[in-house]
Design goal:
4 helices; alpha+beta; four-stranded antiparallel β-sheet; 4 strands
Length: about 130
């Protein structure tokens, strides 16, 4: 008779854990974006934020700085099921941001200058 009681206790614990864990907050997104683009929180705006369907918690969004640089960013947040299975210990990912070329200051950086000594490998990579 103890097996049904143990089973029901486990099921109740699982239901409680499904509601636990971290959730993506606007503050969390801003902090992770700040790290990704190297700007202080408050010096950029986040727009077009949307959860991608069927991607296991991916959130896509755009960032624009006060200087006019634009970034396309995303991050992952664990699903409720994943949170329950890991007892709420699965963290959110860092923000991954890409500077958008030609978007007001977010242009790609120039290639590195050629080194003083140029060999065949560097010439093949157009570094000389």
């Amino acid at each position: 008779m103890t097996f049904p009681r143990t089973l029901s206790a486990c099921a109740a614990s699982l239901l409680v854990l499904c509601g636990c864990g971290t959730t993506v907050t606007q503050q969390g997104i801003e902090q992770r974006t700040s790290q990704a683009i190297g700007r202080e929180v408050g010096s950029f705006t986040i727009s077009d934020q949307q959860k991608e369907e069927g991607s296991n918690g991916r959130i896509n969004y755009r960032v624009r700085t006060r200087e006019g640089a634009s970034y396309s960013c995303y991050m992952y947040s664990p699903s409720q099921f994943t949170k329950a299975m890991t007892f709420g210990q699965t963290p959110q990912s860092d923000a991954i941001c890409t500077a958008m070329a030609g978007q007001g200051g977010g242009a790609a950086t120039a290639p590195a200058p050629a080194p003083a000594s140029c060999n065949a490998l560097l010439r093949a990579a157009n570094r000389c």
